[in-house]
Amino acid sequence: MVVSGFALPLVYRPRLLLCGIEGAGLDHLGPSILHELEKFPVHALGLSSLLSDPIHLWWENAHDQLRAVLLTLLAELPSDSPILLLGTSFVQLDELDGDPSSVFPSSSIYQVDKPITEDRSLFFDHLIEAAFSIPSEGGAKKSKKSAAVPELSKAPKVDTGPKVSELKAKAEAEGHALRRLRMCLRDVCNRVLYDKRFSAFHYPVLEEDAPDYHAVIQKPMDMATLLQRVDAGKYITCKAFLEDFDLILANAKIYNRDDYNGARIVSRAYELRDSVHGMLSQMDPALVSYCEKIAENGGPLTLPEEIGGSVHVAQMATTTMTRASARLRNVQPEVNVDQSYEVIALKRPKKILDPSHPGFTPDEGSQQQEQPVVDQADPKPASPPPESIEVDTNPDEISESKSKSKSTDTIMSDVETETKIESIKKLLLDRTTDYGVPQLERLYTQIVKGVFGLKIVDQDDFKPPVLEFLLGFVENEANF
90-117: per-residue pLDDT in tens? Predict the structure, then answer.
């Protein structure tokens, strides 16, 4: 008896009686139905009465009063209760003792027969498929076991330092960045030097113009001095350049008085500062940050002389490759101006033209004089020497032919395998004509046990030994 927890009943008093002969497999079918229903809220009541004795034995052994009590309890159950009464009988319906319709209506009785040919054919398909899957699963488990090697401890890392190639690349990158910085700062200084508005700050103050200037100003600065320091590579960051540049404004504010002329000079110094700061703000931020990183690391990297040499590139043999490599090195290729176009044209390869061609001209035909002359008296053309005979062997065609042959062999082996499987299946169907479920179950166990006992060496090609075992098994009548 099975209780299902549905909110609304779907069947009026659900009851099912399975009847069949001894080999119909009802002892498997009843538990299978219960197992299928276990995915829902299922509770089995009276487990021994369901799984031990079939209903025809229980009904024969039960007392009349017990039968009456059972019928009374079943009749008192509400019709909308979600309770399924399931029974199995190993005898035919007409052989049941008593009236089974009092418990199971005629519409709830299902007659189960022995497996027919279609059922056995489907069963053997699954059996052969399972036999082929056993060696592959065993090989996969062995490969997993062999692959599960103990993990070795990691070797300690040895700090060998950066490689020579890495040092060279870093030094080259830093040199390129500082070169770009000098180009930007040099451009700023030259723009200021070309601007006549800032002529008072172009060059150092002479003692003739201001005798007490160097006594008042401790750190004099001008654009020419800044340009010299830029050329000398004194500045590796914009911040260092601006520190010296800001001295121009600071010195102008200190030395000049508050009169009209002094105020004009200080105002011009402010204008100079705004112009320079505006030009520096247009620089690449990535370049500025990279140069600051170089300064934080202590300046640009300097390589020793033994590893600081440049890498020489070997010159190619052909002119075309020489010109290509020259372009990569930003070097202009050598061109002989004195050499005329006619001389270059004469060096071009000559074309072999046919006089019968419509575009043939006498000038073009004159170029054929250097070709070997064939004797017109001999109708057969001269054959090339034996040394010049070549055999054209295309590796693609060879590989394609090999792949075709392999695919053909694979197709043939598959056809042979299918043929053997069909013959095995036919013998199984012929030898199990009157088999019931218990006999088929015993046959399944024998075949699977035999496949497990096979010693298969090559796990990649396990079908031949399995087929050989199945053929030997079905040909032996003692197994049936």
Answer: 777 677 666 666 777 777 777 777 788 8
Nearest in space to 425 (alpha carbons), one of 470, 370, 360:
470
Token pair of 330 as six digits: 């930003």
Q: How confident is the model at residue 198 (pLDDT cuts 50, 70, 90)?
A: very high
- In the structure encoding, which two tokens stand for residue 280, read together? 């520096």
**Which residues of 150-287 form beta strands (DSSP E)?**
none
**Residue 271 near residue 192, CB atoms below 8 Å:** no
Long-range contacts formed by 24-33: CB under 8 A, 24+ apart: 24/90, 24/112, 24/113, 24/114, 24/436, 24/437, 25/112, 25/115, 25/436, 25/437, 25/438, 26/54, 26/88, 26/89, 26/90, 26/112, 27/88, 28/437, 28/441, 29/88, 29/112, 30/86, 30/88, 33/86
Residue 440, φ and ψ in degrees, nearest 5? -65, -35
- Sheet order of strands, 83-89 included: 42-44, 2-4, 83-89, 15-20, 109-112
268, 267, 265, 254: which is closest to 214 by C-alpha? 254
- Which residue is it, tokens 């070309």? 194
* pLDDT at site 271: 95
Q: Tokens 């399972």 sit at which residue?
A: 130
Domain ranges of the chain: 2-113, 165-296
Which carries the bigger pLDDT value, residue 464 or residue 317?
464
Q: How many CB atoms lie within 10 A of CB 326?
A: 14
133-143 exposure pattern, b = at least 16 Cβ within 10 A, e = fewer: ebbeebeeeee
Torsions phi, psi of 304, nearest 5? -65, 160
The C-alpha atoms of residue 171 and residue 176 are separated, in whole angstroms, by 9
**Strand 83-89 to 15-20 pairing:** parallel
Residue 87 CB neighbour total at 10 angstroms: 24
Find the angle CA(120)-CA(124)-CA(126) to the nearest 5 degrees.
120
Across all residues in the chain, what is the average pLDDT? 72
Encoded amino acid at 380, one letter: K
Measured CA to CA, the distance from residue 245 to residue 241 in angstroms comes to 6
The alpha carbons of the chain give a radius of gyration, in whole angstroms, of 51
Is there a contact between 466 and 455 (Cβ–Cβ < 8 Å)? no
Cα gap 276→185, rounded to integer Å: 10
In 47-143, where do the E strands start and end? 83-89, 109-112
- Architecture in CATH of 165-296: Up-down Bundle (1.20)
CA-closest candidate to residue 88, choices 46, 38, 54: 54
Show Cβ contacts of residue 175 under 8 Å, excluding neighbours closer than 6 positions: 300
How far apart, in Å, are the Cα atoms of 202 and each of 15, 54, 191, 460?
113, 118, 11, 87
* Cα angle: 375, vertex 376, 378; to 5 degrees: 75
